[in-house]
Amino acid sequence: MTNQNETITVIIVDDNPKFRDFISDVINHTDNIDLLGIAENGDDGFRMARQLTPNVVIMDINMPGIDGIATARAILKTVQTRILLISAEQTPDFEWEQNLVNASGFLEKPFQADQLINSIREIHNRSLV
Q1: What per-residue string of b and e applies to 80-91 under the rule 16 or more CB within 10 Å gives b?
Q2: Which of 93, 120, 88 is closest to 104 using CA atoms?
Q3: What is the pLDDT of residues 39-79, one digit of tens each?
Q4: Per the omega criterion (within 30 degrees of 0), is the bond before 110 cis?
Q5: Distance CA 129, CA 115 (A)
């Protein structure tokens, strides 16, 4: 369990500019959560996660090029972090994929600001595997 006053560091990896803007706006207006960076694709997200070592990576599953599942796998092999997968398409495969990459959580788009913040805080409080 983490201290209530501890700052949670986050990066966003999503190819959709509207969702990146929404998520960053929510985080920037939330106490004790700091946005370290935003990536538009899996390659940049992987590099950013390795460089900045955030507590939580918010990762879109469906992106051109390297998708969120492959990126999450690569990040978790090299960085101690938690992955919050997000997607506009909820299918039974996503639960399997979430477990496959050992992601900490999943949110289906669209989601509300409070759902995002609660998910970030909840998965941050889980032990790293």
Answers
A1: ebbbbbbbeeee
A2: 120
A3: 999 999 999 999 999 999 999 998 988 999 899 999 999 99
A4: yes
A5: 23
